[in-house]
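Researcher: We plan to redesign the surface later, but first we want a full-length starting point. Tokens attached.
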């Protein structure tokens, strides 16, 4: 033991003498060698060779009203259009164009919830909850934070909408970007409720039932013309990783929540933006084609709690600086369910929180490489 300790004492004594003789020079030399060495050691500890972590589903979300607040789910069922109950309702302005948080950020405060087995919407300026649909299967999978206590708020609109469902439903055409979409009208009660909540005249519309709703995905990345989408902007499913969202948050003046990015599937266990390289993944038993990155607008700048654009947190501008191409900003990946699975009519496809995510294919690096 003395053979080890004695030389160490001599070395420490020598280092102390050198520092006393040349304090500034000694400090510079120590920093020159010490800082890189520390970085190497830290990198080695943070990224041990051969150690892999499982990628799993962290959370699941649907947004029943286009541009309204979302519902967190324990499990999600897929239908031919994406997640069941996702973007099945839309608000239309007087120009017969869809409304969103881009121009009407206060839509973020339209919160859907479950009242018993009924899907409803509430707003802090409205004394009532508005009936949207009977949804017992959604009530079984929704996170408890979105469940209202029976009797806690008066319910309106149920009788009117159920009566409208008995008679032949009137239709309307709403323009979603460049595409006219045929949808169902609801009731005057619904139009009045939303108009009062948002303080402007609006029309509340509903997507047609499965088999009747026709809206092909129009994108050169999707040659399959049989692929359809709900009332979402362009694709059925948006996947975002926890690491990517956190990476953006660390670059902002104030932290923001994942709700700003409005994902359907959130995964954890990856480095930031690793999902950019995926071309196909299996989530539980469901196979998703990862089609293309999601180009972001100004909606991540809207605070979902206040319904106002946040002057302190501007994730779109930050992402443009280090995670964009050609002036466009990207976050998350647009996905569709593999067509072979969708063609199995008797099979119910579900994704659950905690499901394992397996990467089945990768895109060409030249296509997916984004500036960092």
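Model: Full-length starting sequence:
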């Amino acid at each position: 033991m003395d053979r080890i300790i004695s030389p160490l004492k001599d070395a420490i004594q020598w280092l102390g003498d050198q520092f006393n003789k040349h304090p500034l020079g000694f400090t510079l030399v120590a920093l020159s060698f010490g800082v890189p060495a520390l970085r190497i050691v830290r990198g080695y500890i943070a990224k041990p060779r051969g150690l892999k972590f499982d990628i799993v589903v962290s959370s699941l979300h649907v947004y029943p009203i286009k541009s309204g607040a979302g519902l967190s789910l324990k499990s999600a069922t897929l239908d031919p259009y994406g997640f069941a109950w996702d973007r099945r309702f839309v608000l239309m302005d007087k120009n017969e164009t869809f409304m969103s948080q881009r121009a009407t950020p206060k839509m973020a405060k339209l919160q859907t919830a479950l009242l018993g087995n009924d899907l409803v919407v509430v707003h802090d300026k409205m004394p009532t909850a508005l009936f949207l649909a009977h949804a017992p299967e959604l009530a079984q999978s929704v996170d408890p934070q979105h469940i209202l206590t029976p009797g806690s708020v008066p319910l309106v609109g149920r009788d009117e909408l159920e009566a409208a469902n008995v008679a032949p439903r009137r239709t309307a055409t709403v323009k979603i970007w460049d595409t006219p979409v045929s949808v169902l009208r609801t009731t005057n009660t619904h139009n009045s409720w939303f108009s009062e909540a948002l303080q402007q005249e609006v029309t509340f519309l509903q997507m047609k039932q499965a088999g009747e709703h026709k809206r092909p995905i129009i994108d050169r990345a999707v040659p399959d013309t049989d692929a359809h989408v709900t009332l979402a902007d362009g694709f059925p499913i948006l996947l975002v990783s926890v690491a990517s969202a956190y990476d953006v948050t660390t670059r902002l003046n104030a932290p923001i929540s994942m709700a700003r990015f409005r994902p359907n599937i959130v995964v954890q266990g990856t480095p930031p933006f690793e999902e950019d390289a995926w071309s196909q993944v299996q989530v539980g038993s469901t196979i998703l084609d990862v089609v293309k990155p999601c180009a972001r607008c100004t909606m991540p700048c809207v605070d979902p709690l206040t319904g106002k654009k946040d002057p302190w947190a501007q994730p779109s501008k930050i992402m443009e600086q280090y995670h964009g191409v050609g002036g466009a900003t990207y976050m998350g990946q647009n996905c569709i369910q593999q067509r072979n699975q969708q063609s199995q009519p008797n099979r119910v496809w579900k994704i659950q929180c905690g499901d394992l995510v397996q990467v089945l294919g990768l895109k060409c690096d030249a296509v997916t490489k984004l500036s960092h």
